[in-house]
Amino acid sequence: MRAEVGRVLAGLDEQQVAAVVAPPGPLRILAGAGTGKTRTVTHRIAYQHLTGAVPATLVLAVTHSSKAAGEMRDRLDRLGVGNVQARTFHAAALRQLRYFWRATGLPGDSRCCWTPTARARITGTCARRSAGRWGSRARTWTRPW
Question: How many CB atoms lie within 10 A of CB 83?
Fold first, then answer.
């Protein structure tokens, strides 16, 4: 396992390594275009999985386009970490909506939830199910550009 972890950290600069080895939990990475954000995120996911901190099956990597999500999955596969869900914001939201729909008690099949009551019930159900998971432990890693 040490060799795998070393391979994940190889080629990263000091700031990227700091972000990759940060304790498990939410981490915000702020950096300009072309500075290695996706590389840092994929290596962080691989590191957390390989060290046993977070199983790959519990990770949801969210990005802006289907192409970027596919690239993220490919990078993770090359790092030896499969089973990570990498999706667009919209695809991730739709999947969660479908997952939580039954718990809301609303009729139908989750295709439309534009009424204020439906939105409130879905939001409340999701919040109750995830409350306390990470609390306010979010961290920020900022790369100067």
Answer: 12
Q: Are 49 and 56 in contact (CB under 8 A)?
A: yes
Burial class, 7, CB count within 10 angstroms (exposed 0-12 / middle 13-18 / buried 19+): middle
Mapping DSSP onto H, E and C, the string for 42-99 reads HHHHHHHHHCCCCCHHHCEEEECCHHHHHHHHHHHHHCCCCCCEEEEHHHHHHHHHHH
User: pTM for the complete prediction?
Assistant: 0.69
101: left (phi over 0), alpha (psi -120 to 50) or beta: alpha
**Full set of structural domains in the chain with CATH:** 2-142 (3.40.50.300)
Which residues is 29 bridged to in the sheet?
141
Report the distance separating Cα 6 and Cα 4, nearest Å. Answer: 5
Distance of CA 74 to the CA centre of its chain: 15
pLDDT digits (tens, 9 = 90+) for 8-65: 999 999 999 999 999 988 888 888 888 898 899 999 999 999 999 999 899 999 888 8
